[in-house]
Amino acid sequence: MEHLLDPEERAHHDQMLRLVTGRWARSAHTWERGEILPEEVVRWCGEAGLLGAALPSAVGGGGWSPIEAGLMYEALGRVSVSLASLVNVHGMMAQTLARWGTAWHREHVLPALGEGSRVAAICMTEPHAGSDLAAISASLLEKANRLLVNGTKVFITFGRRADDLLVFVQREGRSEACLVRRDNPGVSIEPMGDVLGLRAAGLARITFSDCEIAPEAVVGKPGFALPVLIPTALEHGRHAVAWMALGMLEACFAECARFVRTRRAFDRTLIDHGQVQSLVTRMGADLEAARHLCVSASRAMGAKDPAATERILLAKYFVCRVAQEHTASAVQLLGSSGVSEQSVTARAYRDAKVLTIIEGTEQILERSLAPALVNAVAEAS
Q: Within this chain, do residues 148 and 45 fall inside the same structural domain, yes or no?
């Protein structure tokens, strides 16, 4: 990674690795048993400045560049994708509010999100609306001069813990978004456990029953949510997921490298066996390509390059896909060690599959990437 960074970025990366892995490197497997991060860890994320790191300094954030934020997610991903997801979903909500919120939001909501004293989550997915977000049926109705939210959201990352929720709804046939606090009357939160991956991510089913909100809690214009707010949130999320998948793959490769250099089979170390060399080479080559794609996406994002969205999509698509392939290879290489819950690879194997689904499945991303890649060649001809 270091050869792709300038000296300041390398120093930042080293700082992130010391901060995150130095504190939590051996903790992730215990978090998963409780199916949510301990409160101590959530507070630490706020106190360490990670929750507000990528928010503009004007709204109380750290003002970090996309490459600085990406390196943070890479360090978090090495330890736990669930930990990285806490910072990510908080950022998805906060960044959307920072860009499209009103002066009231910037004064009354964003400062607490920037300093990390309140935790945010984002409520998109419903029982019958996942990739097809136009199918959202949760509603915002005006009744007797009251604004009421009704509906159910599922698989809400850190929904069990979040203080503030950005809820996507329909209002008179148009998409909207609104802010709801977890302690609002009419909000019911039910844990969702027994999931394949992201087991410490505090997933929840959240039901809104005539939950009243103030008019200023509405974010954006009528019809604004689906074409504008959701893409803003997803772009932040896809950038973060690409980097956290990279960190997870870095951790798996490091564990495999240590193992194949020391483990012996048939009178030779594993790295001397041709089949092992093939697995390790493919993993290492894809890891290097993943690093380049993540850095390229962040640099385009920081430069406000018109191609940034495509670079982010490509990074998310490739890194999550190869992470799924190579975490499986890592479990295979480590054998009995790889299936232990104490191993990085067992957790990564489960988490990698989830990362190919969240913030856009492979198939959804291909719908955007395929035409863009083909058109780029046609325009260059």
A: no
